[in-house]
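cron nightly-structures :: item 1 of 1
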Amino acid sequence: MKVLIVGGGGREHAITWAVAKSKRVDKIYAAPGNAGIAELAECVDISVMDAEKLVAFAKEKEIDFVIVGPDDPLAAGVADAFLDAGIKTFGPRKNAAFIEASKAFSKDLMKKYNIPSAKYETFSDAEEALKYLETIKAPYVLKADGLALGKGVLICGTIEEARDGIKEIMIDKKFGSAGDKVVIEEFMTGREVSVLCFSDGKTVRPMTSAQDHKRAGDGDTGLNTGGMGTFSPSPFYTKEIEEFCNKYIYQPTIDAMAAEGRPFKGVLFCGLMLTEDGPKVLEYNARFGDPEAQVVIPRLKNDIIDVMEACVDGTLDEITLEFEDNAAVCVMLASDGYPVSYKKGFPITGLEAFNDKDGYYAFHSGSKFDDEGRIVTNGGRVIGITALGKDLFEARKNAYDATQWVDFENKYMRHDIGKAIDEQ
């Protein structure tokens, strides 16, 4: 089987690693890939958004199976382009990926189908949004309606901050057209948990749980990022909570999308808040989370191609998902200054230390080869250092030990990834 993976981040590196383990796969291509993915796949310089070129390449190379990783191409209909060309493709069509591309749509969906979530109102007029702020109490949660690289959510402690947030999103257009509408939500408190679910449009198969750390600084300070680290499983995601979510969130969401004429085939990411009133949905994504994928995928026992193909073929009910009885922690090595401004192009050293160590992974998020053939930094988030362990404590120690093997100028990381497990 020849496989094409669309994307070039840490999520796609983790997916490529899993695909490379499949006995069914003979050749992997990645578009555009990165320096880490290049060890496992042949990288081709095609943009994730260039559907025409991607489809032409897939036809030329007689690709058997395509995996579309990132949110932007899914929202733009890149999966549709492959599917319409008769190429078997893992990833939701554009009308289903809308569950992530529009927060207003996803909130309306939850309201209509009684899926537990925070109370909210949606505004396309900044003045109306500002007036509404006067009627509710702090803190305030503001969400840009569209895709904003995981950074379009503002939590404001005062009404002054909330007013500034509305200005940023709707008037100054900090997130571009993603801020044409804004969703204002009630603030929920509790533990956050992420659960990724495979779906074939009818059947849903939830994966093991994970927890992300979004803020740039230790102690959950600083700006929101694409994710500074993760751990899996979450000790707070009990069997009882899992059963509740299966019954009232995961399956109802897939059923709701089907009822709306938007059958969801791919990975549905459910961001959950474990409140005093039970689990509620914070957000949906229409793909693997990043860096959640970097701790969930290494624990998956199944051949990932078997599972993905079942999602495409509508036979997921025949699959039993299995995960290793262990734990994983990922610590993101970033460029100092991320997510605001940072320098790129610094050589990365020490990666060879991972070659002969089982249970340790360096998933590249932002890397490339320079003119001299060296691997250099090429993004804000550079490498996700993931390690396994018999439990979360061992996995965290292993991951932080492994962060010392890799170095580059302006290397930055949080030092408290997984600290919440000390409180379990």
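cron nightly-structures :: done
The CA atoms of residues 126 and 170 lie 6 Å apart.
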